[in-house]
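Subject: Interface between my chains keeps coming out wrong

I've been trying for a while to get a sensible model of this assembly. When I model each chain on its own everything looks fine, but I need the whole thing in one frame so I can look at the contacts. Pasting all components below, labels as-is. Any help appreciated, I'm running out of ideas.
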Amino acid sequence: MTAEQSYEDAGDGLAHPFVKPFDVQKVRNDFPALHQTVHGKPLVYLDSAATSLKPSVVIDAVASVYGRDCANIHRGVHLLSARATERFEAVRTQVAEHIGASSRSEIVFTSGATSGLNLLASTLTQAHVRSGDRVLVSMMEHHSNIVPWQLACERVGAMVVPIPLDKAGALSLEAYANLLDTKPKIVAFTHVSNATGIVNPVQKIAAMARDAGALSVIDGTQAVPHLEVNVAEIGVDFYVFSSHKAYGPNGVGVVYGHKALLDALPPYQGGGDMIRNVSFSGTTFADPPTRFEAGTPNISGVIGMGVALAYLRNLGSDARVHEKSVLNYAKTRLRELPQVSLVGDSEHQVGSVSFVIEGVHPHDVGTLLDKAGVAVRVGHHCTQPLMEHFGVPATVRASFGVYSTCDDVDRLCDAVNATVAFFR
Amino acid sequence: MDLGELYQELILDHNKHPRNFKRVAECTHHARGDNPLCGDKLSLELVFDESGRVRDIGFQGVGCAISRASSSLMTEAVKGKTRAEVLALFDLFHRMATAPMDAEHVEMAGLGKLEAFSGVREFPMRVKCATLAWHTLHAAITEGDSLVTTE
Ligand SMILES: Cc1ncc(COP(=O)(O)O)c(C=O)c1O
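Reply #2:
Try treating it as a single job with all components included. I did that and got this:
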Protein backbone atom coordinates (compact mmCIF):
# COMPACT_ATOMS: atom_id res chain seq x y z
CA MET A 1 0.00 0.00 0.00
CA THR A 2 1.42 3.38 -0.87
CA ALA A 3 1.00 6.44 1.24
CA GLU A 4 -1.27 8.06 -1.32
CA GLN A 5 -3.62 5.10 -1.58
CA SER A 6 -4.04 4.62 2.09
CA TYR A 7 -4.56 8.31 2.64
CA GLU A 8 -7.34 8.42 0.05
CA ASP A 9 -9.01 5.44 1.65
CA ALA A 10 -9.01 7.35 4.88
CA GLY A 11 -10.91 10.25 3.42
CA ASP A 12 -14.45 9.16 4.23
CA GLY A 13 -13.48 7.39 7.42
CA LEU A 14 -15.62 4.39 6.50
CA ALA A 15 -13.48 2.58 3.97
CA HIS A 16 -11.60 0.72 6.67
CA PRO A 17 -13.15 -2.60 7.61
CA PHE A 18 -12.63 -2.28 11.36
CA VAL A 19 -13.76 1.22 12.07
CA LYS A 20 -16.96 0.32 13.89
CA PRO A 21 -17.14 -1.13 16.41
CA PHE A 22 -13.54 -0.71 17.48
CA ASP A 23 -12.00 -4.16 17.41
CA VAL A 24 -8.85 -3.95 19.46
CA GLN A 25 -7.92 -7.59 18.80
CA LYS A 26 -7.91 -6.88 15.11
CA VAL A 27 -5.75 -3.82 15.69
CA ARG A 28 -3.36 -5.88 17.78
CA ASN A 29 -2.90 -8.26 14.88
CA ASP A 30 -1.48 -5.34 12.91
CA PHE A 31 1.43 -4.96 15.36
CA PRO A 32 3.91 -7.84 15.12
CA ALA A 33 6.00 -6.67 18.10
CA LEU A 34 3.05 -7.24 20.44
CA HIS A 35 3.15 -10.94 19.82
CA GLN A 36 6.17 -12.02 21.78
CA THR A 37 7.03 -13.14 25.26
CA VAL A 38 9.50 -11.41 27.56
CA HIS A 39 11.01 -13.33 30.46
CA GLY A 40 8.60 -16.09 29.52
CA LYS A 41 5.46 -13.94 29.81
CA PRO A 42 3.33 -12.44 27.05
CA LEU A 43 4.47 -8.87 26.49
CA VAL A 44 2.37 -6.06 27.95
CA TYR A 45 3.64 -2.95 26.22
CA LEU A 46 2.81 0.15 28.24
CA ASP A 47 5.58 2.39 26.94
CA SER A 48 4.02 3.90 23.85
CA ALA A 49 4.86 7.42 24.98
CA ALA A 50 8.55 6.53 24.66
CA THR A 51 7.91 5.04 21.27
CA SER A 52 4.85 3.40 19.81
CA LEU A 53 4.99 -0.01 18.23
CA LYS A 54 4.73 -0.10 14.44
CA PRO A 55 1.97 -1.69 12.38
CA SER A 56 2.99 -4.06 9.57
CA VAL A 57 1.90 -1.55 6.93
CA VAL A 58 4.56 0.86 8.18
CA ILE A 59 7.26 -1.80 8.39
CA ASP A 60 6.36 -2.94 4.86
CA ALA A 61 6.38 0.61 3.52
CA VAL A 62 9.88 1.23 4.85
CA ALA A 63 11.05 -2.06 3.37
CA SER A 64 9.49 -1.18 0.03
CA VAL A 65 11.50 2.02 -0.16
CA TYR A 66 14.77 0.17 0.29
CA GLY A 67 13.60 -2.85 -1.69
CA ARG A 68 12.21 -1.02 -4.70
CA ASP A 69 12.25 2.78 -4.76
CA CYS A 70 15.76 3.07 -3.36
CA ALA A 71 17.02 6.34 -4.74
CA ASN A 72 17.86 9.80 -3.62
CA ILE A 73 15.14 12.37 -4.06
CA HIS A 74 14.86 15.76 -5.73
CA ARG A 75 17.96 15.16 -7.82
CA GLY A 76 17.78 12.11 -10.03
CA VAL A 77 16.17 12.13 -13.45
CA HIS A 78 15.82 8.38 -13.41
CA LEU A 79 12.64 6.53 -12.66
CA LEU A 80 13.57 5.23 -9.21
CA SER A 81 14.38 8.73 -8.05
CA ALA A 82 11.13 10.01 -9.52
CA ARG A 83 9.15 7.35 -7.66
CA ALA A 84 10.93 8.01 -4.38
CA THR A 85 10.47 11.76 -4.75
CA GLU A 86 6.79 11.36 -5.52
CA ARG A 87 6.17 9.16 -2.50
CA PHE A 88 8.20 11.47 -0.27
CA GLU A 89 6.49 14.67 -1.40
CA ALA A 90 3.04 13.10 -1.20
CA VAL A 91 3.59 12.79 2.53
CA ARG A 92 4.11 16.53 2.80
CA THR A 93 0.65 17.13 1.37
CA GLN A 94 -0.77 14.41 3.58
CA VAL A 95 0.78 15.82 6.76
CA ALA A 96 -0.51 19.30 5.90
CA GLU A 97 -4.03 17.87 5.64
CA HIS A 98 -3.57 15.70 8.73
CA ILE A 99 -2.84 18.66 10.99
CA GLY A 100 -4.92 21.29 9.24
CA ALA A 101 -2.11 23.36 7.72
CA SER A 102 -3.20 25.58 4.86
CA SER A 103 -0.40 24.60 2.51
CA ARG A 104 2.13 21.83 1.98
CA SER A 105 4.89 24.43 1.98
CA GLU A 106 4.24 24.93 5.69
CA ILE A 107 5.49 21.40 6.44
CA VAL A 108 9.20 20.94 7.12
CA PHE A 109 10.60 17.43 7.60
CA THR A 110 13.18 17.02 10.34
CA SER A 111 14.90 14.10 12.05
CA GLY A 112 12.50 14.27 15.00
CA ALA A 113 10.83 16.55 17.50
CA THR A 114 14.17 17.34 19.09
CA SER A 115 15.68 18.54 15.85
CA GLY A 116 12.47 20.45 15.06
CA LEU A 117 12.59 22.26 18.38
CA ASN A 118 16.29 23.03 17.92
CA LEU A 119 15.55 24.36 14.45
CA LEU A 120 12.88 26.67 15.81
CA ALA A 121 14.80 27.78 18.89
CA SER A 122 17.82 28.62 16.81
CA THR A 123 16.16 30.38 13.87
CA LEU A 124 13.39 32.13 15.79
CA THR A 125 15.85 33.45 18.33
CA GLN A 126 18.17 34.64 15.60
CA ALA A 127 15.32 36.40 13.81
CA HIS A 128 13.25 37.79 16.67
CA VAL A 129 15.05 37.74 20.02
CA ARG A 130 17.54 40.34 21.21
CA SER A 131 19.60 40.87 24.31
CA GLY A 132 17.40 41.31 27.37
CA ASP A 133 14.33 39.77 25.70
CA ARG A 134 12.35 36.93 27.26
CA VAL A 135 11.20 33.55 26.02
CA LEU A 136 8.55 31.77 28.11
CA VAL A 137 8.77 27.99 28.46
CA SER A 138 6.40 25.97 30.64
CA MET A 139 7.70 23.97 33.60
CA MET A 140 6.17 20.76 32.27
CA GLU A 141 8.30 20.66 29.13
CA HIS A 142 10.39 17.78 27.92
CA HIS A 143 14.06 18.78 28.07
CA SER A 144 14.01 19.07 24.29
CA ASN A 145 11.69 22.08 24.62
CA ILE A 146 13.84 23.70 27.31
CA VAL A 147 17.49 23.20 26.51
CA PRO A 148 17.41 24.42 22.86
CA TRP A 149 15.85 27.68 24.09
CA GLN A 150 18.49 28.02 26.78
CA LEU A 151 21.26 27.50 24.25
CA ALA A 152 19.76 29.90 21.73
CA CYS A 153 18.93 32.58 24.31
CA GLU A 154 22.38 32.34 25.82
CA ARG A 155 23.86 33.24 22.45
CA VAL A 156 21.92 36.50 22.21
CA GLY A 157 21.80 37.36 25.90
CA ALA A 158 18.09 36.68 26.28
CA MET A 159 16.32 34.99 29.18
CA VAL A 160 14.31 31.77 29.38
CA VAL A 161 11.55 32.24 31.95
CA PRO A 162 9.54 29.25 33.23
CA ILE A 163 5.74 29.35 33.26
CA PRO A 164 4.72 27.89 36.65
CA LEU A 165 2.25 25.08 37.16
CA ASP A 166 -0.53 24.66 39.69
CA LYS A 167 -0.38 21.99 42.38
CA ALA A 168 -2.02 19.38 40.18
CA GLY A 169 0.57 19.91 37.48
CA ALA A 170 -1.49 21.96 35.03
CA LEU A 171 -0.14 25.17 33.57
CA SER A 172 -1.17 28.15 35.68
CA LEU A 173 -3.02 30.48 33.32
CA GLU A 174 -2.95 33.21 35.92
CA ALA A 175 0.82 33.12 36.28
CA TYR A 176 1.09 32.89 32.51
CA ALA A 177 -1.06 35.99 32.02
CA ASN A 178 1.19 37.89 34.41
CA LEU A 179 4.31 36.74 32.59
CA LEU A 180 2.82 37.92 29.30
CA ASP A 181 2.81 41.44 30.75
CA THR A 182 6.62 41.29 30.53
CA LYS A 183 6.24 41.18 26.72
CA PRO A 184 8.04 37.93 25.90
CA LYS A 185 8.98 37.38 22.27
CA ILE A 186 8.17 33.68 22.16
CA VAL A 187 6.06 31.26 24.20
CA ALA A 188 6.92 27.54 23.92
CA PHE A 189 4.75 24.87 25.51
CA THR A 190 3.69 21.30 25.10
CA HIS A 191 0.30 20.17 23.83
CA VAL A 192 0.36 17.07 26.03
CA SER A 193 2.82 16.38 28.84
CA ASN A 194 4.90 13.28 28.19
CA ALA A 195 5.30 12.69 31.93
CA THR A 196 1.70 13.08 33.14
CA GLY A 197 -0.45 12.99 30.00
CA ILE A 198 -1.99 16.32 31.01
CA VAL A 199 -3.46 18.17 28.01
CA ASN A 200 -2.86 21.90 27.90
CA PRO A 201 -5.61 24.32 26.79
CA VAL A 202 -3.49 25.08 23.74
CA GLN A 203 -6.05 27.22 21.96
CA LYS A 204 -6.27 29.55 24.91
CA ILE A 205 -2.51 29.63 25.56
CA ALA A 206 -1.83 30.41 21.89
CA ALA A 207 -4.50 33.12 21.78
CA MET A 208 -3.11 34.78 24.88
CA ALA A 209 0.38 34.71 23.34
CA ARG A 210 -0.92 36.27 20.14
CA ASP A 211 -2.74 39.01 22.03
CA ALA A 212 0.48 39.80 23.87
CA GLY A 213 2.44 39.98 20.62
CA ALA A 214 4.44 36.79 21.22
CA LEU A 215 5.06 33.98 18.77
CA SER A 216 3.79 30.58 19.88
CA VAL A 217 5.52 27.20 19.54
CA ILE A 218 3.78 23.96 20.49
CA ASP A 219 5.50 20.65 21.10
CA GLY A 220 2.83 18.28 19.81
CA THR A 221 4.88 15.10 20.14
CA GLN A 222 2.50 13.46 22.61
CA ALA A 223 -0.64 14.93 21.08
CA VAL A 224 -0.50 13.72 17.49
CA PRO A 225 -0.81 10.02 18.48
CA HIS A 226 -3.86 10.65 20.69
CA LEU A 227 -5.77 13.72 19.54
CA GLU A 228 -7.21 15.25 16.41
CA VAL A 229 -4.78 18.11 15.87
CA ASN A 230 -5.69 21.15 13.79
CA VAL A 231 -3.11 23.90 13.84
CA ALA A 232 -5.48 26.44 12.31
CA GLU A 233 -8.10 25.84 14.99
CA ILE A 234 -5.47 25.99 17.70
CA GLY A 235 -4.20 29.23 16.22
CA VAL A 236 -0.55 28.44 16.81
CA ASP A 237 2.41 29.76 14.82
CA PHE A 238 4.63 26.68 14.98
CA TYR A 239 3.85 23.06 15.80
CA VAL A 240 6.36 20.23 16.16
CA PHE A 241 6.10 16.44 16.43
CA SER A 242 7.95 13.15 15.96
CA SER A 243 6.86 10.28 13.77
CA HIS A 244 7.96 7.46 16.04
CA LYS A 245 5.47 8.17 18.81
CA ALA A 246 2.67 8.07 16.25
CA TYR A 247 3.27 4.58 14.85
CA GLY A 248 5.86 5.74 12.32
CA PRO A 249 9.61 5.15 12.00
CA ASN A 250 12.29 6.72 14.20
CA GLY A 251 14.39 9.63 13.10
CA VAL A 252 11.64 11.62 11.41
CA GLY A 253 9.68 14.59 12.58
CA VAL A 254 7.69 17.56 11.40
CA VAL A 255 7.79 21.28 11.94
CA TYR A 256 4.68 23.13 10.92
CA GLY A 257 5.19 26.87 10.53
CA HIS A 258 2.75 29.50 9.46
CA LYS A 259 3.81 30.41 5.93
CA ALA A 260 4.60 34.09 6.40
CA LEU A 261 6.55 33.32 9.55
CA LEU A 262 8.56 30.50 7.99
CA ASP A 263 9.38 32.76 5.04
CA ALA A 264 10.96 35.26 7.40
CA LEU A 265 13.25 32.75 9.12
CA PRO A 266 16.95 32.34 8.30
CA PRO A 267 18.28 28.91 7.29
CA TYR A 268 19.19 26.48 10.05
CA GLN A 269 21.71 24.02 8.65
CA GLY A 270 23.54 24.61 5.39
CA GLY A 271 24.13 22.04 2.69
CA GLY A 272 22.65 20.47 -0.38
CA ASP A 273 19.01 20.97 -1.33
CA MET A 274 18.45 24.04 0.83
CA ILE A 275 20.03 26.51 -1.59
CA ARG A 276 18.92 28.40 -4.65
CA ASN A 277 22.37 29.31 -5.88
CA VAL A 278 25.78 28.79 -4.33
CA SER A 279 28.64 31.11 -5.10
CA PHE A 280 31.68 32.29 -3.20
CA SER A 281 30.44 35.81 -3.68
CA GLY A 282 27.23 34.96 -1.85
CA THR A 283 24.79 32.08 -1.58
CA THR A 284 21.04 32.43 -1.87
CA PHE A 285 18.63 30.13 -0.16
CA ALA A 286 15.61 28.17 -1.26
CA ASP A 287 12.13 29.03 -0.06
CA PRO A 288 10.60 27.10 2.82
CA PRO A 289 10.21 24.24 3.42
CA THR A 290 13.31 23.32 1.38
CA ARG A 291 15.34 26.05 3.10
CA PHE A 292 15.18 23.99 6.29
CA GLU A 293 15.88 20.58 4.76
CA ALA A 294 19.60 20.48 4.12
CA GLY A 295 21.03 17.17 3.00
CA THR A 296 19.45 13.84 2.17
CA PRO A 297 16.47 13.41 4.45
CA ASN A 298 15.19 10.21 6.01
CA ILE A 299 13.32 9.20 2.86
CA SER A 300 12.04 5.82 4.01
CA GLY A 301 11.19 7.33 7.37
CA VAL A 302 9.07 10.09 5.88
CA ILE A 303 7.27 7.62 3.64
CA GLY A 304 6.72 5.32 6.61
CA MET A 305 5.37 8.23 8.63
CA GLY A 306 2.84 8.91 5.88
CA VAL A 307 1.59 5.35 6.09
CA ALA A 308 1.48 5.55 9.90
CA LEU A 309 -0.62 8.72 9.91
CA ALA A 310 -2.94 7.19 7.34
CA TYR A 311 -3.26 4.10 9.51
CA LEU A 312 -4.13 6.25 12.51
CA ARG A 313 -6.64 8.24 10.49
CA ASN A 314 -8.27 5.04 9.28
CA LEU A 315 -8.84 3.92 12.85
CA GLY A 316 -10.70 7.15 13.39
CA SER A 317 -12.15 8.61 16.53
CA ASP A 318 -13.14 5.18 17.85
CA ALA A 319 -9.48 4.50 18.55
CA ARG A 320 -9.32 7.66 20.64
CA VAL A 321 -12.43 6.70 22.56
CA HIS A 322 -10.97 3.25 23.16
CA GLU A 323 -7.64 4.66 24.36
CA LYS A 324 -9.39 7.03 26.70
CA SER A 325 -11.41 4.21 28.22
CA VAL A 326 -8.25 2.17 28.82
CA LEU A 327 -6.59 5.21 30.44
CA ASN A 328 -9.60 5.83 32.66
CA TYR A 329 -9.70 2.17 33.64
CA ALA A 330 -5.99 2.34 34.53
CA LYS A 331 -6.50 5.42 36.68
CA THR A 332 -9.45 3.86 38.47
CA ARG A 333 -7.61 0.62 39.15
CA LEU A 334 -4.38 2.30 40.25
CA ARG A 335 -6.25 4.63 42.61
CA GLU A 336 -7.67 1.55 44.33
CA LEU A 337 -4.19 0.32 45.23
CA PRO A 338 -3.41 1.69 48.69
CA GLN A 339 0.35 2.19 48.19
CA VAL A 340 -0.03 3.91 44.83
CA SER A 341 -0.37 7.66 44.28
CA LEU A 342 -1.01 9.14 40.86
CA VAL A 343 1.26 12.00 39.87
CA GLY A 344 -0.44 14.71 37.84
CA ASP A 345 -3.98 13.42 37.90
CA SER A 346 -6.30 15.45 35.66
CA GLU A 347 -9.59 15.20 33.78
CA HIS A 348 -7.72 16.55 30.79
CA GLN A 349 -5.33 13.71 30.25
CA VAL A 350 -4.47 11.41 27.36
CA GLY A 351 -2.07 8.60 26.66
CA SER A 352 -0.17 8.32 29.93
CA VAL A 353 -0.56 7.92 33.66
CA SER A 354 2.31 8.51 36.07
CA PHE A 355 2.47 7.13 39.58
CA VAL A 356 4.70 6.35 42.50
CA ILE A 357 4.57 3.47 44.96
CA GLU A 358 5.14 4.31 48.58
CA GLY A 359 8.49 3.02 49.78
CA VAL A 360 9.60 1.57 46.45
CA HIS A 361 11.81 3.51 44.08
CA PRO A 362 10.53 3.65 40.47
CA HIS A 363 13.69 1.97 39.21
CA ASP A 364 13.02 -1.09 41.31
CA VAL A 365 9.41 -1.04 40.15
CA GLY A 366 10.61 -0.99 36.55
CA THR A 367 12.78 -4.05 37.02
CA LEU A 368 10.04 -6.05 38.75
CA LEU A 369 7.44 -5.06 36.17
CA ASP A 370 9.81 -6.04 33.38
CA LYS A 371 10.23 -9.46 34.94
CA ALA A 372 6.45 -9.77 34.91
CA GLY A 373 6.44 -8.98 31.18
CA VAL A 374 5.16 -5.44 31.67
CA ALA A 375 7.15 -2.72 29.89
CA VAL A 376 6.80 0.74 31.44
CA ARG A 377 9.04 3.77 31.64
CA VAL A 378 10.59 4.70 34.96
CA GLY A 379 12.66 7.78 35.63
CA HIS A 380 12.27 11.50 35.22
CA HIS A 381 11.02 11.24 31.63
CA CYS A 382 13.35 14.05 30.55
CA THR A 383 11.22 16.43 32.60
CA GLN A 384 13.36 17.23 35.62
CA PRO A 385 11.75 20.63 36.36
CA LEU A 386 8.36 18.89 36.42
CA MET A 387 9.65 16.16 38.77
CA GLU A 388 10.99 18.88 41.03
CA HIS A 389 7.58 20.55 40.94
CA PHE A 390 6.00 17.33 42.19
CA GLY A 391 8.83 16.76 44.68
CA VAL A 392 9.70 13.30 43.36
CA PRO A 393 12.95 12.16 41.74
CA ALA A 394 11.16 9.91 39.31
CA THR A 395 7.86 8.22 38.53
CA VAL A 396 6.55 5.07 36.91
CA ARG A 397 4.71 5.90 33.69
CA ALA A 398 2.30 3.58 31.96
CA SER A 399 1.40 4.83 28.50
CA PHE A 400 -1.08 3.56 26.00
CA GLY A 401 -1.62 3.16 22.29
CA VAL A 402 -4.43 2.08 20.01
CA TYR A 403 -3.52 -1.54 20.77
CA SER A 404 -3.70 -1.23 24.57
CA THR A 405 -6.36 -3.12 26.49
CA CYS A 406 -7.90 -3.30 29.93
CA ASP A 407 -6.23 -6.72 30.24
CA ASP A 408 -2.90 -4.90 29.93
CA VAL A 409 -3.98 -2.70 32.83
CA ASP A 410 -4.92 -5.74 34.91
CA ARG A 411 -1.50 -7.28 34.28
CA LEU A 412 0.09 -3.96 35.29
CA CYS A 413 -1.87 -3.82 38.54
CA ASP A 414 -1.09 -7.46 39.36
CA ALA A 415 2.59 -6.71 38.84
CA VAL A 416 2.36 -3.57 40.97
CA ASN A 417 0.77 -5.59 43.76
CA ALA A 418 3.49 -8.20 43.49
CA THR A 419 6.11 -5.45 43.64
CA VAL A 420 4.62 -3.99 46.79
CA ALA A 421 4.58 -7.46 48.36
CA PHE A 422 8.18 -8.13 47.32
CA PHE A 423 9.51 -5.01 49.03
CA ARG A 424 7.31 -5.21 52.11
CA MET B 1 17.91 -15.10 36.31
CA ASP B 2 15.37 -14.59 38.96
CA LEU B 3 14.69 -11.50 41.00
CA GLY B 4 15.90 -13.07 44.21
CA GLU B 5 19.42 -13.13 42.83
CA LEU B 6 19.34 -9.41 42.10
CA TYR B 7 17.53 -8.43 45.24
CA GLN B 8 19.28 -10.68 47.73
CA GLU B 9 18.12 -10.59 51.34
CA LEU B 10 21.17 -8.58 52.31
CA ILE B 11 20.34 -5.94 49.70
CA LEU B 12 16.70 -5.73 50.76
CA ASP B 13 17.80 -5.36 54.36
CA HIS B 14 20.31 -2.59 53.64
CA ASN B 15 17.70 -0.82 51.47
CA LYS B 16 15.24 -0.81 54.34
CA HIS B 17 17.77 -0.06 57.02
CA PRO B 18 20.69 1.72 55.39
CA ARG B 19 23.83 1.87 57.56
CA ASN B 20 25.86 5.06 57.80
CA PHE B 21 23.01 7.06 56.30
CA LYS B 22 24.25 10.30 57.81
CA ARG B 23 26.45 13.32 57.43
CA VAL B 24 30.02 13.11 58.68
CA ALA B 25 31.18 15.99 60.83
CA GLU B 26 34.52 17.50 59.81
CA CYS B 27 34.87 15.22 56.83
CA THR B 28 38.12 15.37 54.90
CA HIS B 29 36.74 14.13 51.60
CA HIS B 30 33.39 14.41 49.92
CA ALA B 31 31.77 14.10 46.52
CA ARG B 32 28.34 14.07 44.93
CA GLY B 33 27.20 11.48 42.46
CA ASP B 34 24.33 11.82 40.01
CA ASN B 35 22.69 9.26 37.81
CA PRO B 36 21.15 11.52 35.17
CA LEU B 37 19.21 8.63 33.69
CA CYS B 38 17.06 8.16 36.75
CA GLY B 39 17.61 11.42 38.60
CA ASP B 40 19.20 9.73 41.59
CA LYS B 41 21.50 11.84 43.71
CA LEU B 42 24.04 10.74 46.24
CA SER B 43 26.25 12.70 48.56
CA LEU B 44 29.17 11.01 50.27
CA GLU B 45 31.38 12.25 53.09
CA LEU B 46 34.32 10.57 54.78
CA VAL B 47 37.19 11.24 57.10
CA PHE B 48 40.59 9.53 57.30
CA ASP B 49 42.36 9.12 60.64
CA GLU B 50 46.02 9.96 61.32
CA SER B 51 47.14 6.51 60.24
CA GLY B 52 45.48 7.00 56.84
CA ARG B 53 42.50 4.71 57.43
CA VAL B 54 38.85 5.57 56.85
CA ARG B 55 37.63 6.53 60.30
CA ASP B 56 34.08 7.41 59.37
CA ILE B 57 31.95 7.56 56.24
CA GLY B 58 28.35 8.43 55.55
CA PHE B 59 26.01 8.90 52.62
CA GLN B 60 22.80 10.76 51.94
CA GLY B 61 20.41 11.13 49.03
CA VAL B 62 17.67 9.36 47.13
CA GLY B 63 18.03 6.21 45.14
CA CYS B 64 16.62 2.83 44.29
CA ALA B 65 17.06 -0.24 46.45
CA ILE B 66 20.18 -1.31 44.59
CA SER B 67 21.88 2.06 44.91
CA ARG B 68 20.93 2.54 48.57
CA ALA B 69 22.06 -0.92 49.52
CA SER B 70 25.25 -0.51 47.53
CA SER B 71 26.04 2.76 49.30
CA SER B 72 25.24 1.25 52.65
CA LEU B 73 27.31 -1.91 52.18
CA MET B 74 30.14 0.11 50.69
CA THR B 75 30.38 2.35 53.72
CA GLU B 76 30.60 -0.72 55.95
CA ALA B 77 33.18 -2.35 53.72
CA VAL B 78 35.61 0.55 53.53
CA LYS B 79 35.61 1.61 57.16
CA GLY B 80 39.07 1.03 58.60
CA LYS B 81 40.67 0.60 55.18
CA THR B 82 43.54 2.61 53.78
CA ARG B 83 43.19 4.66 50.63
CA ALA B 84 45.06 2.00 48.62
CA GLU B 85 42.85 -0.77 50.01
CA VAL B 86 39.73 1.22 49.15
CA LEU B 87 40.92 1.71 45.58
CA ALA B 88 41.68 -1.99 45.24
CA LEU B 89 38.20 -2.84 46.48
CA PHE B 90 36.74 -0.35 44.01
CA ASP B 91 38.49 -2.20 41.19
CA LEU B 92 37.28 -5.56 42.38
CA PHE B 93 33.70 -4.39 42.79
CA HIS B 94 33.70 -2.62 39.46
CA ARG B 95 35.02 -5.69 37.68
CA MET B 96 32.38 -7.91 39.26
CA ALA B 97 29.49 -5.56 38.47
CA THR B 98 30.49 -4.92 34.87
CA ALA B 99 31.72 -8.37 33.87
CA PRO B 100 30.05 -9.53 30.66
CA MET B 101 26.82 -11.42 31.20
CA ASP B 102 28.34 -14.58 29.73
CA ALA B 103 31.64 -14.36 31.61
CA GLU B 104 32.69 -17.81 32.72
CA HIS B 105 34.54 -16.74 35.82
CA VAL B 106 34.12 -13.61 37.85
CA GLU B 107 36.64 -12.90 40.58
CA MET B 108 34.83 -12.60 43.91
CA ALA B 109 37.59 -13.32 46.41
CA GLY B 110 38.05 -10.41 48.76
CA LEU B 111 34.59 -8.92 48.18
CA GLY B 112 32.99 -10.39 51.26
CA LYS B 113 29.40 -9.20 51.68
CA LEU B 114 29.70 -7.17 48.48
CA GLU B 115 29.28 -10.43 46.59
CA ALA B 116 25.58 -9.81 47.08
CA PHE B 117 25.79 -7.56 44.03
CA SER B 118 27.01 -10.30 41.72
CA GLY B 119 23.52 -10.49 40.21
CA VAL B 120 23.45 -6.97 38.81
CA ARG B 121 25.60 -7.73 35.81
CA GLU B 122 22.70 -9.78 34.49
CA PHE B 123 20.52 -6.67 34.64
CA PRO B 124 22.45 -4.30 32.37
CA MET B 125 20.04 -1.45 33.02
CA ARG B 126 20.81 -1.64 36.74
CA VAL B 127 24.60 -1.86 36.79
CA LYS B 128 24.94 1.88 37.24
CA CYS B 129 22.69 1.80 40.28
CA ALA B 130 25.20 -0.48 41.99
CA THR B 131 28.32 1.36 40.87
CA LEU B 132 27.25 4.97 41.51
CA ALA B 133 28.32 4.89 45.17
CA TRP B 134 31.70 3.45 44.26
CA HIS B 135 32.36 5.99 41.52
CA THR B 136 31.43 8.72 43.95
CA LEU B 137 33.80 7.32 46.56
CA HIS B 138 36.53 7.03 43.95
CA ALA B 139 36.06 10.67 43.02
CA ALA B 140 36.03 11.75 46.66
CA ILE B 141 39.41 10.24 47.42
CA THR B 142 41.14 10.82 44.10
CA GLU B 143 39.81 14.20 42.99
CA GLY B 144 38.69 15.80 46.20
CA ASP B 145 35.50 17.82 46.12
CA SER B 146 33.77 16.82 42.91
CA LEU B 147 30.63 15.79 41.14
CA VAL B 148 30.52 12.52 39.25
CA THR B 149 27.84 11.12 37.06
CA THR B 150 27.18 7.65 35.78
CA GLU B 151 27.00 8.94 32.21
C1 LIG C 1 6.79 15.85 24.71
C2 LIG C 1 8.02 15.41 23.98
N1 LIG C 1 8.71 16.31 23.28
C3 LIG C 1 9.82 15.97 22.59
C4 LIG C 1 10.30 14.69 22.59
C5 LIG C 1 11.55 14.36 21.82
O1 LIG C 1 11.22 13.59 20.74
P1 LIG C 1 12.34 12.86 19.87
O2 LIG C 1 13.16 12.07 20.84
O3 LIG C 1 11.58 12.01 18.95
O4 LIG C 1 13.13 13.91 19.18
C6 LIG C 1 9.62 13.72 23.32
C7 LIG C 1 10.13 12.33 23.37
O5 LIG C 1 10.43 11.77 24.40
C8 LIG C 1 8.45 14.09 24.03
O6 LIG C 1 7.76 13.19 24.72
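Reply #3:
Confirming on my end. The longest strand of chain B covers residues 40-48.
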